[in-house]
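Structure (tokenized):
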């Protein structure tokens, strides 16, 4: 837990390194956050992304990235961060479409697409079976649900993913090049001068 001794230490710290792995427990996460928030403004804060097993979330990563001066991550972690951001964006957009088109509420799961699933002739990156779940809830053919969801997604100029239906109603996605370019540009802009 965060103590008065830790607060004094934080106020006299010139540089600190913290990571996602140490924030896997609520008590340590809250302690780290209070410590970081107690640091003097001139303190150099290094965030070591350090993605291990299931001990991280987008919320932990985003909070940490917005509270650091220097970001340390490896090539594999870059790929995983791209996946986290993309899957969350797809999930939110599909949830919005379901609410808008079907006036329904269903839990949306987006996963890494199985090998062999294609979108625009390329290996799909992400997949969801929500149309099959929703078909059962709405008493509709899942492929009809998928067609309506796809049409809405394809009509959204801000949705940066290509989408295709597979089998009984799976939706498979692949990010367009501009999605990754924009996300990497945003990341580079946030940490200009600190990435090496």
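Design, position by position:
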């Amino acid at each position: 837990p965060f103590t008065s001794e830790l607060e004094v230490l934080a106020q006299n710290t010139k540089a600190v390194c913290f990571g996602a792995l140490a924030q896997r427990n609520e008590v340590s996460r809250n302690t780290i956050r209070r410590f970081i928030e107690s640091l003097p403004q001139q303190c150099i804060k290094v965030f070591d992304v350090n993605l291990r097993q299931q001990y991280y979330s987008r919320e932990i990563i985003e909070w940490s990235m917005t509270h650091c001066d220097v970001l340390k991550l490896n090539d594999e972690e870059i790929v995983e961060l791209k996946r986290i951001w993309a899957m969350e964006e797809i999930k939110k957009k599909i949830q919005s479409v379901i609410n808008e088109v079907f006036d329904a509420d269903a839990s949306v799961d987006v996963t890494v697409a199985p090998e062999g699933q294609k979108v625009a002739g390329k290996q799909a990156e992400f997949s969801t079976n929500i149309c099959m779940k929703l078909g059962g809830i709405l008493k509709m053919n899942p492929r009809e649900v998928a067609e309506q969801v796809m049409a809405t997604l394809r009509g959204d100029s801000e949705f940066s993913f290509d989408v295709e239906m597979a089998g009984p109603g799976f939706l498979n996605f692949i990010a367009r090049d501009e999605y990754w370019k924009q996300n990497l540009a945003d990341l580079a802009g946030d940490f200009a001068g600190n990435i090496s």
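Reviewer-requested clarification: The chain is about 50% helix and 15% strand. Residues 75-102 form the longest helix (28 residues).
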